[in-house]
UniProtKB/TrEMBL annotation:
Organism of origin: Aotus nancymaae (Ma's night monkey)
GO cellular component: endoplasmic reticulum; membrane
Span list, region Disordered: 1-20
InterPro entries: CLN6 (IPR029255)
Superkingdom of the organism of origin: Eukaryota
Protein name according to UniProt: CLN6 transmembrane ER protein
Length: 105
C-alpha cells in the first residue's frame, strides 16, 4: 500500500522528489494554479532588514547600554538596562512576525 501511495503522489513521503510532490499536491488539491505552485516564495527584504536592525540594536547594544547608563539608575531589586533590552526584543519580534503574516496574503 505504501508503494501505491508513492506512485500516486510522487514525493509526498519525503523522498527525493519531495518538493515536486508538495507543489503537485497543492496544485492538484488546492485553489492555486500550477504556475503559482511552482513559483518560489518571494524574499521579504523589509523583514530581513527589520530583524537585522533589531538584532544589532537590542542584542549587541545591550552591553554597550549597560556601560553607558549609570548603575544607580537600576538597583538590584529592579530590572537592569540589559533586561529592558531583552524585554523589548521579546515584545517587538512577535509584531514583526505578525506584519509578515498580515502582508503575505
Amino acid at each position: 500500500m505504501e508503494a501505491a501511495r508513492r506512485r500516486q503522489h510522487p514525493g509526498a513521503a519525503g523522498g527525493p522528489g519531495a518538493q515536486l510532490g508538495a507543489s503537485f499536491l497543492q496544485a492538484r488539491h488546492g485553489s492555486v494554479s500550477p504556475d503559482e505552485a511552482a513559483r518560489t516564495a518571494p524574499f521579504h527584504l523589509d523583514l530581513w532588514f527589520y530583524f537585522t536592525l533589531q538584532n544589532w540594536v537590542l542584542d549587541f547594544g545591550r552591553p554597550i547600554a549597560m556601560l553607558v547608563f549609570p548603575l544607580e539608575w537600576f538597583p538590584l531589586n529592579k530590572p537592569s538596562v540589559g533586561d529592558y533590552f531583552h524585554m523589548a526584543y521579546n515584545v517587538i519580534t512577535p509584531f514583526l512576525l505578525l506584519k509578515r503574516l498580515l502582508y503575505c496574503f
